[in-house]
């Protein structure tokens, strides 16, 4: 029987790519989103769309009352680290209270399967790298704390109510759909790769490299950039692993790339120079973050297909030069 998956936040960047992947793999999909950041154009035409808000419980109950939902994939959240420090209330309300509302509506309708967008930001400043799931979690900003709180709520709900949950701790989501139909479109945009490409296109004056004196080979920060389609596939695999496995899984390639290496790769892909300004460090940036992805491989049978940063940036460049929204 075809299973129906509710994708909360499915009009956003990672959600919309996962919706497409689920539909391509035989799932029926309902997208729920309040469109504060998402785009209607990003939602695959094969999916149903419901305008709903995590903070409006009635809108959530209505979905579960009217539809037979097998599982929820929950992307809906605010995700600007700096803003979370300035206005933590906004983050705890939307991300934590909103998720509790979603869980209430699910459990009231006997829906017990959830896959959740967590983040490497729950680890905070790393004690060692690559980071595995046993690494202590000590987030350094309200955004990361809000995601850790949800992971902890899941563990309690599993014991008390039989919730089946997998929290996927993403490293840096990057790139766009290979067919160029959907891509990354955040407003404001804060992520490195789209900003570098916008500087190359002349849509911004330059890219500011935040810090050149880190303890890394070229002095700039190292991150683990994972292609959005590899991320999308992992969500389907996680869904298929419930209820056999519950817990947390890192999603990264296991390879670190520095800010300078991103800029060089983007220049190579586009064939153009990136106007670059070397600037001060950004507060709260660890020098190096990359994943130990052994657990994703072992438990989900997952394998990233995009092997190089050039391949990832090529998909992002195709999108930036032919954006649909
Ligand atoms: N982009 C990354 O690199 C990254 C890394 C780690 C974790 N994450 C997490 O992954 C998830 C998706 O990230 P993204 O980059 O696709 O973000 P996004 O902003 O593009 O997508 C989030 C979607 O959720 C919706 N939304 C927000 N609050 C809502 C509410 N109260 N009710 C209904 N819908 C609501 C937005 O309209 C948007 O469509 C987030 O939870 C984020 O914290 C992202
Ligand atoms: O204009 C910029 C933007 C970023 N960077 C650098 O590029 C790297 C990547 O920065 P991003 O902002 O693209 O990504 P982050 O690693 O800060 O953020 C990731 O981790 C966060 C938690 O730490 C959130 O989960 C977020 O959604 C996710 O993309 C960092 O070293 C950052 O200092 C620059 O040098 N210049």
TrEMBL record:
NAD-dependent epimerase/dehydratase domain location: 5-241
Keyword Transit peptide: no
Subunit annotation: Homodimer.
EC assignment: 5.1.3.2
Organism this protein belongs to: Taurinivorans muris
Family classification: Belongs to the NAD(P)-dependent epimerase/dehydratase family.
Metabolic or biological pathway: Carbohydrate metabolism; galactose metabolism
Protein name: UDP-glucose 4-epimerase
């Amino acid at each position: 029987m075809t299973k129906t998956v509710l994708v909360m936040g499915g009009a956003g960047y990672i959600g919309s790519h996962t919706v497409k992947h689920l539909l391509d793999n035989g799932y029926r999909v309902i997208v729920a989103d309040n469109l504060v950041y998402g785009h209607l154009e990003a939602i695959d035409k094969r999916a149903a769309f419901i305008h709903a808000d995590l903070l409006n419980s009635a809108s959530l109950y209505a979905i579960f009352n009217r539809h037979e939902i097998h599982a929820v994939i929950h992307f809906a959240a605010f995700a600007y680290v700096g803003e979370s420090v300035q206005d933590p209330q906004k983050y705890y309300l939307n991300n934590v209270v909103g998720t509790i509302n979603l869980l209430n509506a699910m459990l009231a309708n006997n829906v017990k399967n959830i896959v959740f967008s967590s983040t490497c930001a729950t680890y905070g400043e790393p004690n060692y790298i690559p980071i595995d799931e046993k690494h202590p979690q000590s987030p350094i900003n309200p955004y990361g704390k809000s995601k850790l709180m949800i992971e902890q709520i899941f563990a309690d709900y599993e014991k008390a109510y039989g919730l089946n949950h997998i929290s996927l701790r993403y490293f840096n989501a990057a790139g766009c759909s290979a067919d160029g139909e959907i891509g990354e479109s955040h407003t404001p945009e804060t992520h490195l790769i789209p900003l570098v490409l916008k500087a190359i296109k002349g849509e911004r004056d330059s890219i500011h490299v935040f810090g050149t004196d880190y303890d890394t080979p070229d002095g700039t920060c190292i991150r683990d950039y994972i292609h959005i389609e590899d991320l999308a596939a992992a969500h389907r695999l996680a869904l298929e692993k419930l209820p056999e496995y519950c817990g947390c899984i890192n999603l990264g390639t296991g390879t670190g790339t520095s800010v300078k290496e991103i800029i060089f790769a983007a220049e190579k892909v586009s064939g153009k120079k990136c106007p670059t300004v070397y600037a001060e460090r950004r507060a709260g940036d660890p020098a190096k973050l990359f994943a130990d992805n052994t657990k994703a491989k072992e438990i989900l049978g997952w394998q990233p297909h995009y092997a190089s940063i050039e391949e990832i940036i090529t998909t992002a460049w195709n999108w930036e030069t032919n954006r649909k929204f």
